[in-house]
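README, section 4: Worked example with a bound small molecule

Sections 1 through 3 covered apo chains. Here we extend the same pipeline to holo records, where the ligand is supplied as SMILES alongside the sequence. The molecule in this example is S-adenosylmethionine. Nothing else about the input changes; the structure line simply encodes the ligand pose together with the chain.
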Amino acid sequence: MSKEFWNKTLGQSFEIKKIDGSILDNNFSPSERYLIDLLGDIRGKSVLEIGCGNGNLTVFLAKLGAKVTCIDTSNVSIQNTMRLAEYNGVDSNVKALNIDAIMIGQIDEKFDIATGSFILHHIEPFNDFARLLSGVINKGGKCVFLENNLRSPLLWFAKKFVVGKLGVAKFSDDSEFPFEPRELDMIKKNFSYVKTHYAEFVFFQLLVSHIFRNNKFFISVCGFLDRVFYKYLPFFNRYSYRQIICFSK
Ligand SMILES: C[S@@+](CC[C@H](N)C(=O)[O-])C[C@H]1O[C@@H](n2cnc3c(N)ncnc32)[C@H](O)[C@@H]1O
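The generated complex, written as structure tokens:
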């Protein structure tokens, strides 16, 4: 999506708030909490956050004691992130750079951890990015990303041929396509250990936002179905629209 789109969206959604370092108090989703757990003890570690948006994760990690460099193509994102960091008293531990992820090779630093949420599927060419990312991670370092997931053939078909037509709502523009298994293979080519995790099953609830327009009855039915699948049919987790990808060299 375009820089203009994100400048506008982030400008509208920015909220200056105290981030207190407690996962539960910050209303993170189950997947975000899972991602933070997978990062482990980050005190004193150097962290790269890619596509930092309004800076919530960057500031959260800085408050836990990490030295965070974050990047984003939106200049509004960078301003908001630094404002949030200052407000929370951690600006000396945050460096925010207004660059495209494909330029990470130009950052004159290596990191213990790379992270981000809903950013990988925006980056092109992804093959080059995966190689460059491997170059900025210290030996023994790890990468943990929360992403969408287009492994399900049904979701792939819906995304390609149904969303945006026949009254089915579309929330993205044509330049954006969810994260596909072939992109996971590109990560596997550059990293030796790659594992996907699922903290929740997000599938039926997509019907609520795209077709049932947040109707309360369908919110509870689809939410219930997703919870049943997550708990009792773990085989299907790989088709969840939300995944956490953890990889290291
Ligand atoms: C879906 S938002 C996610 C923001 C934040 N990570 C979150 O989860 O709230 C995507 C963010 O990535 C940024 N972005 C998109 N493409 C990018 C790219 N190629 N390089 C760096 N940032 C990018 C956008 O400006 C936006 O801030």
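What to look for in the output: Residues 93 and 125 are 30 Å apart (CA to CA). The mean pLDDT is 93.

Section 5 describes how to batch many such records.
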